[in-house]
Amino acid sequence: MSRPAALVTGGARRIGEAIVRRFAAEGWHVVVHCHTSAEQGAELAAALPSAEAVTCDLADPAAAVAMVERLAGDLDDWRVLVNCASVFRPDEVTSLDAEVFTEAMQVNAAAPAAMAQAYLRLARSRAGRRVIELTDQKLANPNPDFFSYTVSKHALAATVPMMAMAAAPADRVFALAPGAILPSHDQSPAETEVSHRMNLLERRTGLEEVADAAWFLATGPLASGQALFVDSGQHLLSQRRDVMFLARGKQA
Fold it and tell me: What is the per-residue DSSP string for 15-80?
């Protein structure tokens, strides 16, 4: 295959889909990873000029690494791994839910780290390899809500500078930290509109902005190990609760 390739986990919908479409628009071959959205992933891949869909449960660490190993053998110019898939389940800072915590740590932190290790060990690329780990603006602007999710994103972020050191100088590893982009859980349209403007610029950050940022990290000159926030300045604020609940209070 002559096209450069990218794997986007969680690529069938939401932010992952936007990133898939951005790379496809640039003429890349895109591997759309999905789990519960297998039908959507297959339909998306079929609609793009050069794409394929793969299914894997990232809660199974052996399966996640096996997927990377298989793709490394198939793709001649695999330039980018974008780890976008995650679970975002509510739980309390005052009472750890062991099941939610274990799932979040595996899907959001352990699987992306193991996949990045396998990718950097095995993937072939004519132009260097790049790993992009999707984290969250909550890293700089924490609050007590979604405790396990937030802890898992901190764990994932910690891998970025370490892996960047090990991958230098040929390969690069980045963190991409979005803010509030799409509705969460049972948010109403009115709550979403309010919550997504709770940032320094008081504007909604678009899906295409995150996709453009992923493209920049994949192809641009940014030094390895850095984190790029795409949140209209939300991470520079101090918010005592998740904006989903702050907006709900304003709507009450």
Answer: HHHHHHHHHHHTT-EEEEEESTTHHHHHHHHHHSSSEEEEE--TTSHHHHHHHHHHHHHH-SSEEE
